[in-house]
Amino acid sequence: MNNINSRRAALSLLAMVIDQGVMITSAKKENIESYRLCNAKEKRAAVRLSMDCLRNYQPSQMLLKSYLTKMPPQPLLRIIIIGVIELCVNKAAAHGVVNDSVKLAHELKRGPSFSGLVNAVLRKISRDGINVWSGIRPQSLPIWIGRPLKQQHGKIIQKKIEAVHSKIPPIDLTFKAGGEKNEEKLPNGSLRVWKGAIAKYPGYEEGQWWVQDAAASIPVKLLGNLRGKSVLDLCAAPGGKTMQLLDAGANVTALDISRNRMKILKENLERVNLDANLVTTDIFSYKVGEEYDIVLLDAPCSATGTIRRHPDLPFLKGQEELDILVTLQKKMLGRAREFVKPGGHILYCTCSLLYDEGEYQIEDFLLNNSDIYPVKIDYVSVGLSKECESLNKSIRTRPDFWSEYGGMDGFFISHLRKKDLLANKN
Ligand SMILES: C[S@@+](CC[C@H](N)C(=O)[O-])C[C@H]1O[C@@H](n2cnc3c(N)ncnc32)[C@H](O)[C@@H]1O
Fold first, then answer.
1. Nearest CA to 245 among 323, 155, 347, 395?
2. For 69-116, what is each residue's pLDDT tens digit?
3. Pick from 20, 238, 289, 426: most CB atoms within 10 A?
4. What is the DSSP string of 357-386?
């Protein structure tokens, strides 16, 4: 339930994202007074509300075109947008939304002269805007994501993905082997919970499960029997896949450049009572004496497959950042190849919607490395259908998959193998 404190803080968080290009997770750590003064519950509500607004920013502006002859200045417009989201998406009681919005307007320098407008518009929307809202199309992706997505899958699928992005995503839990409860699971074995229900699931302190989107759990599940295998988990933090590898019995070296993220990985491993060899370093500085059976490269990427969880992302990133990531991923794939044994496996994945960070990356890698070949993926074993098949035997999940369960993150997965040239000679 939102109150004026959470609404005020949501307004500040929105300004941080839209005006200053700061991620919500980082904005929370900034010294924003309106956020700092909230209690824990109000803070959570403020984050939720700002995310709801970011998911529906464009549709809110569309709706307002029918109610305003001229858009008011920022941040008054954002006060109204927060009100629209509260009324049309969260179905909050009109009088609380209108009163708080008018009070927030009064707190602004030029606000008092607009408070009548805020009051009138939100009252009208509370009467008939909710019906109009249901006819407005979901928010479009920015061009650097939307255009390639349309080229890859066509307009209909692009629109389906955009529709999923407007919805609040569920939370998926991956259970340690033997830690599962007798409950209905998703086809890949994850347990899906909705808002608030996560607290009901016992076993967190005991380390029986961790939060991981169903799609993110798929790459490791495709590796088959891992008992006794040596695995180099490049780009490992915060460790969702490291925990899966360890739980499946692999001997894991988990490497990541980020000290902070490695600290979280270490805490995660302690909680689930699993142990890996931890290395905090740059993949390009890592020197190894041995080669590994399996190298997992969950490369840094645009994270466009996770927009349902991170609706701030389309407001922050752009083509320039994508180009830098694509260059880095290419270099990382080359590095991963050096670490794998002849006959060993490379599992490359990204939580991106874009072929540039998936299919095209692998296409280029295969062209330049004749000793590497793609392996067919048994996607049926993780509950996926033929629709996930992509170039060079790779697979791709999309947010509009598993719509009957509430969707999934977008993920690209390619399973590659290094030829064992000596074995061929014998
Ligand atoms: C997609 S995340 C990894 C998620 C992780 N595999 C999991 O399942 O929880 C990518 C990671 O790459 C790391 N990274 C980025 N550049 C790196 C580099 N040059 N060397 C090593 N790690 C790097 C980031 O710190 C980040 O933790």
1. 347
2. 988 888 899 999 999 999 999 999 999 999 999 999 999 887 788 889
3. 238
4. GTHHHHHHHHHH-TTEEE----GGGGT--G
Residue 298 lies in a domain: yes
Question: How far apart (Å, rounded) are the C-alpha atoms in residues 191 and 186?
Answer: 6
Q: Which atom of ligand 1 is nearest to the CA of 298?
A: 6
Q: Which of 172, 210, 213, 257 is the pocket-test mutation for ligand 1 (most atoms within 8 Å of CB)?
A: 257
Same domain as 210, residue 120: no
235/96 same-domain check: no
- Interval between CA 234 and ligand 1 midpoint (Å): 7
Q: Whose Cα sits closest to atom 26 in ligand 1? A: 235
What is the CATH number for 233? 3.40.50.150
* Tokens matching residue 99: 């009163």
Say yes or no: 247 and 123 in one domain: no
State which ligand 1 atom lies nearest to the alpha carbon of 216: 8
CA distance 344 to 128: 62
Q: How far is residue 51's CA from residue 311's CA, in Å, rounded to a whole number?
A: 6
What is the distance between the terminal CA atoms of the chain, rounded to a whole angstrom? 70
Domain boundary among 112, 134, 156: 134
DSSP code of residue 182: S
Atom of ligand 1 minimally distant from the CA of 261: 27
The Å distance, Cα 298 to ligand 1 centre, comes to 7
30: CATH = 1.10.940.10
Give the integer Cα–Cα distance in Å for 87 and 118: 13
CB 364 within 8 A of CB 127: no
Domain count, the chain: 2
**SS3 (DSSP) at 83:** helix
List, for residues 252-292, the tens digit of each pLDDT value: 999 999 999 999 999 999 999 999 999 999 999 998 877 99
| Beta strand segments in 265-410, E | 277-280, 292-298, 340-350, 372-374, 395-397
Last residue of a domain, which of 113, 134, 155? 134
Lowest mean pLDDT among 116-120, 145-149, 177-181: 177-181
Q: Which domain holds residue 294?
A: 171-425
Helix (H), strand (E) at residue 232: strand 230-234
